[in-house]
């Protein structure tokens, strides 16, 4: 009973900020006040009409899709080699690919900026994509290595003995079995890139900005509930993706037991 109370208190502590954000998002007041004096959808309408934030949302969605595809294109073959093959330096490659997880994003962002600046990659689409890839790729590799390591090798061996080439075995046997992990990796890579703010602050410029950076700049000079409405939209969007993965595949099965 005590354990359940502690867990409930922990959940309440974690969810309390979101409850306040939801309440303020539907406020009829012009300022951030709690409790809100009235109920209104005006800030969601204002959000739809806000060209800067909506443009930044579109750019973030495009960037996140690009980063997701790049992370899968690089991470899935790398994870397959690490999980299914035996060669010298395998552990070193895995450590190198997942090393960004050990660094604070502030340090990582500063380092990326120092490397990008001489090459003119700052405030460019390629620069943003590479910077976000440095953050998302380790998650894709970790999930796919776990997912591929748990797959039985009997089916692959059977397909190989029947004359299937290694590429056919990977395409027709391994990848379909690893599909839950692949979908979970894609969803996580998209959400991480879409939500990344610290590294983006180092890389973006006045003409190229992502949604989290645009939100950060907006709250510096405004105190209305518009950002709260945007936060509600992002929370619902993220929860929808996570719940779809859970509903279709099961989260534990998707990331690999």
Question: What proportion strand?
Answer: under 5%
Count the E strands.
0
Count, helices: 13
In sequence order, what are the helices and strands, one letter per element?
A: HHHHHHHHHHHHH
- Rg over C-alpha atoms, rounded to the nearest angstrom: 22 Å
Distance between the termini: 29 Å
* Fraction of residues in helix: over 70%
> What oligomeric arrangement do these chains adopt?
single chain
Largest sheet: none
Structural class: mainly alpha
- The average pLDDT is 82
Low-confidence segments, ≥5 residues, pLDDT <50?
A: none
Shape designation: globular
Describe the structure.
By secondary structure, the chain is mostly helical. Helix content is 75%, strand content 0%. It has 13 helices and no strands. The protein has helices at residues 2-25, 42-49, 51-84, 90-98, 105-116, 125-149, 154-161, 166-177, 179-195, 198-203, 211-221, 226-248, 251-255. The mean pLDDT is 82.
